[in-house]
Structure formats: C-alpha cells, structure tokens
C-alpha cells in the first residue's frame, strides 16, 4: 500500500471512530456531518467524498462495530473455561458495552433501512457463532442433549426478531433490555445450572 492509500485509510479510520463515539452517545439523528468532521479533524467534504452521506457512514460504522464485537466473542469461544463462565462473561461484557450506548443509538439500529445489514450479520455470522457456543454447552453437559437444533434456531430467531422492534427501545430502559439478554441465555432460572447439569 502506497503512502497516499495509507493516509486515506487512516483518515477513514479516524472518521469512523469519531462517528462511532458520537453515534453511541447521541444516535444518528442528532449528530451532524460537521460535528463528526470536527472530531475527526477533517473537512465535511472529505467525509462526503469517502462515504457519500451520513446514512452510508452509519452503515459502515455499524458493520465495523458488529464485526469487532463478533471477533471478541470468537476469541471467548476458544478460551478454556466452563460453558456457564463463558455465558456469564458474555452477559457481563454486554452490560459493560451497554453503558456506552444510548437509546438513541439503539433506535438508529432498529431503522428499517438497516434491516438487510443486520439480518445478514445475524444469519451469516452471529447465529453460527451462537450455535457453536451451544454445541460447546452440549459437549460439556450443560445444554439439554435432547433439545433439537431446529428448536434452538427458532428460539434464537424469535429473540432476534424481538430486538428489531423499535418500540422496545423507546419504551424500556437499558436494565430491562439487559434482563432480556439474561432470559435469552438462562431462561426463567436466572442462572446457569451448577451442581445438577441438565441432561
């Protein structure tokens, strides 16, 4: 990569990082290109030249953000700790991440124009990773071995569809959304099975 291309890629990184920080706090609607440009120390024209519009920039930022989050969980799958500890770490990490996200940001993610990007990410990246995690749980004896893969997939997809509902983010606070994450992994028991494993 020559010097010009390297500088261009660096500028794009600065812009995306600045945009992500602002979008996380204020959401896409309340952030202007001028504010992003100021934070990234570039001109607004540069942003338009690289990304075309604020909406396209948001799509790039969101895709990059989701890929980085996914990479974190991929690494977690390789860690040599019991299945319940992995779930606890995932939920704890989500709580820490949630502290940096505003409801305005979550509302922006639920915009119908982003549905294809999010669905593609869920179907081709996130769900296969979750299935891999569940298979680890089965191997270790923590996940019911008699539960069909089809039933688990329906459960995951149902939960995924629930998170696409805009009113969910509008009417409930972050603690309730995090409780939904706990329900997803642990059900009504509220905690992993420790002494007596599910067979």
Automatic annotation (TrEMBL):
The lineage of its organism: Bacteria, Bacillati, Bacillota, Bacilli, Bacillales. Residues 9-69 form the HTH tetR-type domain. This is TetR/AcrR family transcriptional regulator. It comes from Heyndrickxia vini. Keywords: DNA-binding, Repressor. InterPro entries: Homeodomain-like_sf, HTH-type_Tx_Regulator, HTH_TetR. Residues 32-51 bind DNA. Pfam families: TetR_N. Gene3D superfamilies: Homeodomain-like, Tetracycline Repressor, domain 2.
